[in-house]
Fold this sequence. Notes:
The chain is α+β, with helices and mostly antiparallel strands. The chain has one helix at 2-22; strands spanning 26-30, 41-50, 57-66, 83-87, 94-101, 108-118, 121-131. Strand 6 and strand 7 form a beta hairpin.
Amino acid sequence: MKRVxxxxxxxxxxxxxxxxxxxxxLSIHCSFPQQLKAGSKVNLKVIIxxxxxxxxxxxLTLELTDATTKKSVDGWFLNIFPxxxxxxxxxxxxxxxxxxxxxxxxxxxxxxxxxxxxxxxxDSLWHSFNIAxxxxxxx
Length: 139
């Protein structure tokens, strides 16, 4: 019986330590669209969660990059608000949106990158999309 209690105590401590190490001080949460098409209007919803104890100002950026050339397509995609500030209020998440439009003549692969910084805490998240050129119907 003593061995079982010791084993369970050690297991509980190890689980608690592992959970503490996995919890980030700053985390970006975003549900990227599953599919995008040329001409799509996107309103990307983002939530920042944190365990920061003191109130600080942070920033969140959305970068849109052509995957082939590695050059920014923010202007072309009308990424109007690529940089947003937030305040880390204890116990509260920050929710925002990034509106942009994929040009109707864009085809190829692009990368969406979200980056958040608040004090020493950082997080980033990215996703790539392949936009197919429109099919032309010849009769």
